[in-house]
Specification:
The chain is of the alpha+beta class. The protein has one domain: Creatinase/methionine aminopeptidase superfamily (Creatine Amidinohydrolase, Alpha-Beta Complex), CATH 3.90.230. The protein is 28% helix and 22% strand. The strands form five sheets. Strands 1, 2, 4 and 5 form a four-stranded antiparallel β-sheet that branches. A three-stranded antiparallel β-sheet has the order 3-12-11, with no helix packed on it. Strand 4 and strand 5 form a beta hairpin. Helix 4 packs antiparallel against helix 5. The longest helix has 24 residues. The N and C termini lie far apart (46 Å). The chain binds 2-amino-4-trifluoromethylsulfanyl-butyric acid (MF3) and cobalt (II) ion.
Length: 298
Amino acid sequence: MFNKFGYTRFKMNPSSPCWCKSGKPYGNCHKETDDRLYDLQRIGVEIPTHEMIKNHEIVSKIRLSAKINIACLDYVEKNIGAGVTTEQINQWINEITHDMGGIPAPLNYEGFPKSVCTSINSEVCHGIPSKSIVLKEGDIINVDCSTIRNGYFSDSSRMFIIGETSPERKKLVEVARECVYKGLEQVKPWAFMGDMSNAIKSHARSNGYSVVRDIGGHGCGVEFHEDPYVSYVLRKGTGMVLVPGMVFTIEPMINAGTHRIYTDPHNHWTVYTDDGKDSAQWEIQVLVTETGNEVLTW
Ligand code: MF3
Ligand code: CO
């Protein structure tokens, strides 16, 4: 017999080692969480799988990967400016990542040809670095960096303003950042993904912006892109319930105009806004802790 949701209570001897590989007995580790999750699932709530719940050892390995990712973006922050090509940024990332013992995760990922994504102005994400793309005064650019270190993944992105830009672009970049941290405030055990989502969507909309619906965030750590898919257009109190040990990205793409987007028909990667208006995105990688959250990568 199947129940409505396809799962039944997870039955494990309380004295056997917990499935999370903490080494602690199940009864003193994840039993309470599992019981509470099962009760929620029974009333129709979407719950995480065990693969989504990381133990301390895995988290500390993700932190080591994150160290490289953060160093890369810190370097970009100090050195980016008018006249720099996006290929130059690609080379910086490559060099720093390898020097620190990592591998750039984007390179060859599903055929992506470079080590970082660089998306300018109306490019929403997945822009491909090129020596023919020269940054100029007034541009806004997202640099999206992802690292593999010892098999563990980190992922974050930041916006950079090249020289002086228009008040409109400046505001878009600032509000996109605020959206991430308004979302983050909602990340705590037993909250819903939709609580985070709703905070982001409300802040974007109250500033006259839209949130991209077709691309979102993801679990991240043991794989580059893991479940769950993280949407930023959910309603409060909906979506997956959050529990300690989950690691995922908050990376809403905020558009000045329509939420609609399209993919470059020639390179099959670069995503643009449908109306040609600007887009901005910041990305952090977050751990749900016992008391709230911890930003692992920024
Ligand atoms: N770094 C992106 C993300 O935030 C994914 C890029 S995939 C790539 O999820 F292949 F374009 F690198
Ligand atoms: Co990501």
